[in-house]
Amino acid sequence: MSRWVKFLLVLVFGIAAGMIYGWYVNPVEYIDIAPGSLREDYKTDFVLMTAEAYQVDQDLGIAVRRLAQLGDTPPVETVALAIAFALENQYAAADLALMQALGEAALTWNPGVELQTP
Amino acid sequence: MNKDKRGSWYLLTALILGVASGLVYAWVVEPVEYVDAPPSALRQDFKDQYRALIAVAYMYSGDLQRAEYRLAALQDADIIQTLAMQAQQALAEGRPETETRALGLLAVAVGQGPAPVAGSSATLPAPASQAAPSVTSTRMQTSPTLVESLEATGTPVSTLRTPQPPNTPLPTRSPTPSATPGAPFVLQSAAQTCNPNLERRLEVEILDAAGQPVPSVELVVTWPGGEEHFFTGLKPDMGLGYADFTMNSGVVYALMVAAGSQPVENLTPVECEADDESRFWGGWKLVFVQP
Description:
Radius of gyration of chain A: 23 Å
Distance between the termini of chain A: 70 Å
Strand content of chain B: 15-25%
Largest sheet of chain B: 4 strands, mixed
Largest sheet of chain A: none
Structural class of chain B: alpha+beta
Oligomer: heterodimer
Helix content of chain A: 55-70%
Number of helices of chain B: 8
Order of helices and strands of chain A: HHHHH
Shape of chain A: elongated
Order of helices and strands of chain B: HHHHHHHHEEEEEEEEEE
């Protein structure tokens, strides 16, 4: 076996070993994540909490800002995804109704309007 | 001869290069992505927002069990203390009153433990076989259905279905003590206190017409060149209607209930004498009631 072949084989082995170490043995740890990285059920609960809070303050701007923490998707779609998950997992009808109300309110939200800072 | 002298160093070079390349790829180019993280992994400011959201949601539902379940996901070392401190911080930062009150209320509620449930029918989620039809009927009555609009846009709803723990219980409404709207508070008593453990402390107790302590009542203390607002109920161990403020000796304060009361003036630390004849600063204890 030529030296080059041996060199390449060991190089590939080294790359594989480095990747295994970097991905499995000692992966990058994220301890300061944003809500967008939450597990799907937590995201859904986040939307539900936003819907509950919206019933308290009736401030669509704040509600939309809260939903925006979950990602770049439009607020209506964020709520729709949460409702889909809630339906799949048989959330209580009252919770679904709350999210539905938030979603319907979000349909009327105009992103061009200046939002009040909380 | 030269070849033999070089030995296997080139293999070691290849190994080092390979491992380094692999690590760069795994840590920098394509690091592990956390997409299913719990709330405890949130950045501190997001955790604060999450906690505030839990509190405001609790204000709506009054479901302490659900709020505690959500708070537990944040894995705070001392939930009550964290809530109370965040309430104080929110107040200092001028956050919306709803948020401040909600945090204070939740701190009190968690400190007191489970409250009696107002209704019995809405406490537990229905079995899956019964819940599904009612969910469907609810959706049929409300339109437009967001899920259908989502599906119409081609979003793969099926990819959302991941096996997860069961959803949290239904919201339940439990009564939270609150002041009677519109009724002003009147000063029932004002007494000097001499407690060496509560030096220069201005203690306030707020009671409703039934004599029950009232949390989340805003108090305003003023002094020449200054003013501060604080709330009852942020020290649950001292009582729902309790709040206190530490005075500076030599400064004269006035205190009033923001919702409505006559200001109590000329409040200043008083000098007290202990049993061993040592001297220390005492304070005041004010009790307000709703007539």
